[in-house]
Protein backbone atom coordinates (compact mmCIF):
# COMPACT_ATOMS: atom_id res chain seq x y z
CA UNK A 1 0.00 0.00 0.00
CA UNK A 2 1.35 3.36 -0.98
CA UNK A 3 4.51 1.85 -2.49
CA UNK A 4 5.81 4.02 -5.33
CA UNK A 5 6.40 1.65 -8.25
CA UNK A 6 8.73 4.18 -9.91
CA UNK A 7 11.24 3.60 -7.13
CA UNK A 8 13.28 0.48 -7.77
CA UNK A 9 14.37 -1.34 -4.67
CA UNK A 10 18.08 -2.15 -4.42
CA UNK A 11 17.65 -5.94 -4.52
CA UNK A 12 15.27 -5.69 -7.47
CA UNK A 13 17.78 -3.50 -9.32
CA UNK A 14 20.62 -5.93 -8.61
CA UNK A 15 18.58 -8.89 -9.86
CA UNK A 16 17.58 -7.03 -13.03
CA UNK A 17 21.16 -5.92 -13.63
CA UNK A 18 22.50 -9.45 -13.12
CA UNK A 19 19.91 -10.93 -15.49
CA UNK A 20 20.65 -8.30 -18.16
CA UNK A 21 24.42 -8.89 -17.95
CA UNK A 22 24.07 -12.69 -18.02
CA UNK A 23 21.68 -12.54 -20.99
CA UNK A 24 23.99 -10.15 -22.87
CA UNK A 25 27.02 -12.37 -22.15
CA UNK A 26 25.27 -15.32 -23.82
CA UNK A 27 25.69 -13.52 -27.17
CA UNK A 28 28.83 -14.08 -29.23
CA UNK A 29 31.63 -11.51 -29.26
CA UNK A 30 30.30 -8.95 -26.80
CA UNK A 31 32.11 -6.46 -24.62
CA UNK A 32 30.50 -5.42 -21.35
CA UNK A 33 32.08 -2.48 -19.59
CA UNK A 34 31.29 -1.62 -16.01
CA UNK A 35 28.21 -2.26 -13.88
CA UNK A 36 30.09 -4.96 -11.90
CA UNK A 37 29.83 -7.33 -14.87
CA UNK A 38 33.06 -9.06 -13.80
CA UNK A 39 31.36 -10.13 -10.57
CA UNK A 40 28.27 -11.57 -12.25
CA UNK A 41 30.35 -13.33 -14.92
CA UNK A 42 33.11 -14.68 -12.67
CA UNK A 43 32.18 -18.31 -13.36
CA UNK A 44 31.43 -17.95 -17.06
CA UNK A 45 33.85 -19.66 -19.43
CA UNK A 46 35.33 -17.79 -22.38
CA UNK A 47 34.86 -14.53 -20.52
CA UNK A 48 37.76 -12.26 -19.63
CA UNK A 49 37.89 -9.64 -16.91
CA UNK A 50 40.19 -6.64 -17.24
CA UNK A 51 40.78 -3.99 -14.59
CA UNK A 52 42.10 -0.57 -15.55
CA UNK A 53 43.67 1.50 -12.79
CA UNK A 54 45.73 4.69 -12.58
CA UNK A 55 47.12 6.97 -9.88
CA UNK A 56 45.28 10.19 -9.07
CA UNK A 57 47.78 12.45 -10.88
CA UNK A 58 47.36 10.54 -14.14
CA UNK A 59 43.57 10.52 -13.77
CA UNK A 60 43.49 14.26 -13.15
CA UNK A 61 45.63 14.95 -16.19
CA UNK A 62 43.49 12.66 -18.34
CA UNK A 63 40.25 14.26 -17.10
CA UNK A 64 41.52 17.75 -17.81
CA UNK A 65 42.99 16.97 -21.24
CA UNK A 66 40.54 14.41 -22.61
CA UNK A 67 37.31 15.30 -20.80
CA UNK A 68 37.87 19.05 -20.55
CA UNK A 69 37.28 19.16 -16.80
CA UNK A 70 38.60 22.36 -15.24
CA UNK A 71 41.64 21.98 -12.98
CA UNK A 72 39.86 23.68 -10.06
CA UNK A 73 37.22 20.95 -9.83
CA UNK A 74 38.88 17.86 -11.27
CA UNK A 75 40.04 16.41 -7.94
CA UNK A 76 36.60 16.82 -6.38
CA UNK A 77 34.88 15.22 -9.37
CA UNK A 78 37.22 12.21 -9.35
CA UNK A 79 36.81 11.74 -5.59
CA UNK A 80 33.00 11.92 -5.89
CA UNK A 81 33.10 9.44 -8.78
CA UNK A 82 35.30 7.05 -6.77
CA UNK A 83 33.05 7.29 -3.71
CA UNK A 84 29.94 6.56 -5.79
CA UNK A 85 31.66 3.72 -7.65
CA UNK A 86 32.92 2.11 -4.44
CA UNK A 87 29.45 2.31 -2.91
CA UNK A 88 27.90 0.74 -6.01
CA UNK A 89 30.48 -2.05 -6.28
CA UNK A 90 30.34 -2.80 -2.55
CA UNK A 91 26.52 -2.99 -2.71
CA UNK A 92 26.68 -5.43 -5.64
CA UNK A 93 29.77 -7.51 -4.85
CA UNK A 94 30.22 -7.08 -1.10
CA UNK A 95 33.55 -6.28 0.50
CA UNK A 96 35.49 -8.35 -2.05
CA UNK A 97 34.62 -6.01 -4.95
CA UNK A 98 38.28 -5.16 -5.49
CA UNK A 99 39.73 -8.65 -5.10
CA UNK A 100 42.49 -9.01 -7.73
CA UNK A 101 41.55 -12.69 -8.20
CA UNK A 102 38.35 -11.53 -9.93
CA UNK A 103 40.40 -10.11 -12.81
CA UNK A 104 42.47 -11.84 -15.46
CA UNK A 105 44.65 -8.80 -16.10
CA UNK A 106 45.06 -5.41 -14.45
CA UNK A 107 46.48 -2.51 -16.45
CA UNK A 108 48.06 0.55 -14.86
CA UNK A 109 47.12 3.21 -17.39
CA UNK A 110 49.94 5.50 -16.26
CA UNK A 111 52.48 2.88 -17.33
CA UNK A 112 50.90 1.26 -20.39
CA UNK A 113 49.63 3.40 -23.28
CA UNK A 114 45.98 2.92 -24.16
CA UNK A 115 46.89 1.64 -27.63
CA UNK A 116 49.07 -1.12 -26.15
CA UNK A 117 46.36 -1.95 -23.60
CA UNK A 118 43.84 -2.36 -26.41
CA UNK A 119 46.26 -4.58 -28.36
CA UNK A 120 46.79 -6.84 -25.34
CA UNK A 121 43.07 -7.08 -24.61
CA UNK A 122 42.37 -7.97 -28.25
CA UNK A 123 45.10 -10.60 -28.19
CA UNK A 124 43.73 -12.20 -25.03
CA UNK A 125 40.14 -12.11 -26.29
CA UNK A 126 41.14 -13.72 -29.60
CA UNK A 127 43.45 -16.36 -28.14
CA UNK A 128 42.09 -19.89 -28.41
CA UNK A 129 41.86 -21.88 -25.20
CA UNK A 130 44.41 -24.68 -25.19
Structure description:
This protein has helices spanning about 10-25, 35-40, 55-65, 75-95, 115-125, and strands spanning about 50-55, 105-110. It has one domain: Rossmann fold. The chain is about 50% helix and about 5% strand. With about 130 residues, the protein is mainly alpha-helical. The termini are far apart. The longest helix is centred in the middle third of the chain and has 20 residues, at about 75-95. It has a two-stranded parallel ribbon.
What is the level-2 CATH architecture name?
3-Layer(aba) Sandwich
- The number of distinct helices, counting runs of at least 4 residues, comes to 5
Alpha carbon gap, first and last residue? 57 Å
Rg on CA atoms, Å: 17 Å
Strand order of the largest sheet: 1-2
Order of helices and strands: HHEHHEH
CATH class: Alpha Beta
CATH topology, by name, is: Rossmann fold
- How many beta-strand runs? 2
Beta-strand percentage range: 5-15%
Structural class: mainly alpha
**Number of folding domains?**
1
The CATH H-level homologous superfamily: P-loop containing nucleotide triphosphate hydrolases
Write the layout of secondary structure elements.
Elements: H1 10-25, H2 37-40, E1 50-53, H3 56-66, H4 74-93, E2 105-108, H5 114-126
Parallel strand pairs: 1-2
